[in-house]
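Researcher: Please predict.
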Amino acid sequence: MSAKFSLYFKAANLAGLLVVFGLWLAAPALAAEDVLVPVSKDGPVLVAAADGDEEVNDPLESVNRAIFGFNEVIYEGVLWPVADFYNDNLPATMRLGVSNFLTNLSSPITLVNNLLQGNLMAALETLGRLFVNTTVGMGGIVDVIGEEDGPLREEDFGQTLGVWGMGEGLYLVLPIFGPSNPRDAVGMGVDWFMDPFTRALRSHEKYQRMIARGIDVRSRFINELDTLEETSIDFYAAMRELYRQHRAGEVRNGELPPTLPIPSITLEDYSDDEFDQATASDEIE
C-alpha cells in the first residue's frame, strides 16, 4: 500500500505541475484589461493593465482569495501559535542554529541553480560554504562563512527560470504554500526532485523538514506579517504585491530594476536669444 500511495502522490504532483504550467501558458488570454488595486487610503484605484513588471496579473483573484482565506485559517489556527511558542521558548541562539542548519541543507539546490544560471563565482562560494559549514560548523548549525561574508544568497529553479527570461505569469495562491505563480510553482517542483535530501530522507523526515522550514520562516517574520495585516486595507493585495516585489528582487539578485531615462536639460541646450527670452518672461511674471 505504501508503494502505491507513493506512486499516486508522485502522479498527483506531476499532474499539478502540468496544470500550473497550462495556466501559465493561458495567462495572456485570461488576464483582465483593467484591475482594481487598493493603492491608497481613499480606496481602490483603477489601473490599466500593462505588459511590464507593474502589471497585476491576477485573473483568478476570486479563487486565489478563497485559497488565501483557507490558508489564513490554517496559519492562525496552527502555524502562528507554533511560531509564537517557538519564539517565546527557544533562545535566539538556538533558533539561529536551526535556521543555519536548514539553510545548509538547501545549499545543494542553491549550488545547482548557481550553475544553471551561469554564475560560476556564486557556485564556488556556495560550495565553499557548504563544505566549511558542514565540517567546521557542526553540520551547518554555525554559519562560519556567514559571520564574515553575510548570509548565503539562496537560489531556486524559479529564480533560474526568471534569469533565463521566463516571466512570472499569473499570480497564484497555493494551498498551504501560499503566494506563488506558475514559474515559481514549477520551480518548486523541480527543486523538490533534484534535492539530494529528497531521496536521502525517509518520507516522514521530508515532511518534518518542510514543517520545520515553514515554522522557521514564519517565526523570523511573524512580527512584520502581523504589522502588515493590521495596517493593510486589503491584506490579500498587500501580500500579493509584497511577494511579487520580493521575487523580482531575488531574480535580479538584489539589483535595482532599470529606470526610465530622465532627460537632462542644461544651458547648452539653449541659444543666447532663447535664454534671454525665457529670463525676460520670468521677470514679467
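Model: The two ends are 88 Å apart (CA to CA).
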